[in-house]
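Exercise 7b. Backbone tokens:
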């Protein structure tokens, strides 16, 4: 089962969101999580490819994961996550949600919801100046995603991100690489 399987997901998402909200994540105490100074949401909009992530139950079996962000007229951001089940040739699954900015000073702290009223933190902790890659985490350090504008990420940029993760309280060894199709650009 994964995030994109609509038949059984609601109870797992609700359980995960409630657990994170009540316990602050895995129970460890971390210093405040720093975010980037400023995110231009119009530049951040568009398609992102998931390059690596911390393992999580709601993306189990997902490969070729993409996230599409589209600004809405009401100030929120439409979120459409897509993945392929078990292989890049597997069936695709999609889930729609929305995000809202909770820190307008930076626009780097958002709340994302796929099942109202449950929201999860989406904090942009690293962002390429040309918006080619982004690193997204949250205060409990239970979740982490490395995103890129293309299915393949520059090796030096990826290595720099991996080297920086401990300074944010993340363990690079926990990351799993996400298979993506060949870049056709």
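Sequence design result:
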């Amino acid at each position: 089962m994964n995030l994109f399987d609509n038949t059984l997901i609601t109870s797992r998402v609700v359980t995960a969101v409630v657990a994170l909200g009540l316990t602050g994540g895995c129970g460890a105490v971390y210093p405040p999580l720093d975010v980037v100074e400023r995110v231009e949401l119009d530049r951040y909009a568009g398609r992102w490819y998931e390059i690596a992530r911390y393992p999580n139950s709601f993306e189990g079996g997902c490969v070729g994961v993409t996230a599409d962000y589209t600004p809405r007229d009401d100030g929120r951001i439409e979120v459409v996550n897509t993945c392929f089940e078990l292989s890049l040739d597997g069936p695709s699954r999609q889930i729609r949600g929305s995000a809202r900015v909770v820190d307008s000073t930076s626009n780097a702290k958002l709340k994302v919801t796929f099942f109202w009223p449950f929201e999860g933190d989406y904090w942009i902790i690293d962002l390429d100046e040309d918006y080619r890659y982004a690193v997204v985490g949250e205060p409990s350090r239970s979740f982490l995603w490395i995103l890129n504008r293309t299915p393949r990420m520059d090796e030096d940029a990826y290595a720099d991100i991996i080297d920086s993760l401990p300074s944010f309280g993340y363990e690079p060894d926990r990351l799993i690489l996400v298979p993506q199709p060949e870049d056709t650009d």
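Instructor comment: The chain has three helices and nine strands. Residues 1-25 have pLDDT under 50 and may be disordered.
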